[in-house]
Amino acid sequence: MKKAFAFMLACSLALGVAACNETASKEQTTLSWWDTYGRDGTEKSVIDAIAKYEEAHPDVKIERVSVPFSEMQRKLLLAMVGGELPDIMIVDNPNHQALSAAGATADLTELVEQWGEADQYFEGPWESTMYQGRNFGIPFGSNNLALFYNNDLLEEAGVKPPTTWDELKEAVPHLAGTTDGYPFSVAAVRSEEGAFQFLPFLWQAGGDLHQLDSEATREALALWKEFIDSGYMSREVLSLNQQDIALQFVNGNTAMMVNGTWQVEQFRDSLEFDWGVVPLPAAEAQATIIGGENFAIGSSSEHIQEAWDVIMFMQEEEVLMQMVKDKHYLPARKDLIEDPYWQEDEMYEPFAESMEFARARAYGEQYPAISNEVQNMIQAALSGSIPIDEAIQETASEVNALFEKNQ
């Protein structure tokens, strides 16, 4: 009591009772924040944004933790068991539904409805935040896949960047004589990167994972297998990730490759040849795939409203634009992607255009296991260890059983 009285007396003398009451009533709220951005420059986007928020809201302190990407899912599930989930998290969008199904992310449906800006987002990234018709997050930023090409080699071969599968099939034989490497490359490694690269081709052929035993799946696998068997694509793609094929492109060992938005700034002003980007070639449909991350709130958070306020701050145009640029991403919002930064840059514009038909890996909580089966199918079919039809039938049976396990 004596300490409290002395505190109030001091406040009265120095500032007045009203000011002191305001100071005493405003306790600082501490929010925990987890993301997977490391010291490779990607953390700048969130560090700067957090600093801006804290400056504007001195009553809130955000304690950020960088979690290794490969450990994020496991750590979140362990934290959920202990009731110690972070207040704010940035999660890889293909994992969002699985986390929501497990109960790790707070249901934000009512807050989103009150906010009223859901229609400003592209369908692909927004769908990745949804689970069973409810909303469990807000997209942060997106990337997608497009076709990079070495224009020097294409001009030497007398071909233009292909916009359809037919044009792609016609171009690769002409390119075979212009390089000591290969005309075309994808990353078919047995990991999520392999599934990430294959799914657009499946969708372009008119297929989907829900109907995997289909002619569309056969066409997509046959396209890749034909390129390998004909020497237009290296058999090594079965063990190459997206950075591996990017290095092949840089070294002039592949004339065209499927790769993502994040490569643009790595290549700009550093390649020794003329290069460009176009949307992925279309077949029955035009399609690419969404990568990137989403904001979510931990289901055990005692500060859901405060965490929501932070996320809303991060969605303000000036803040979000700078974060996305720092990450070398694309905005998930339709209004922001009209900015000249993306529309007037010849390398980013094809990716911006592709957001209109970019799809999410929104296949429910069993998607990680489904992806694993798809990866096995790709490896078996392209290596020739079993015929394409057999690989598809075996995989379709496993995938259908996994879909039935979805809640």
Automatic annotation (TrEMBL):
PROSITE patterns the record matches: PROKAR_LIPOPROTEIN
Signal peptide segment: 1-19
Coiled-coil residue windows: none
Name under which the protein is recorded: Sugar ABC transporter substrate-binding protein
Entry keyword set: Signal
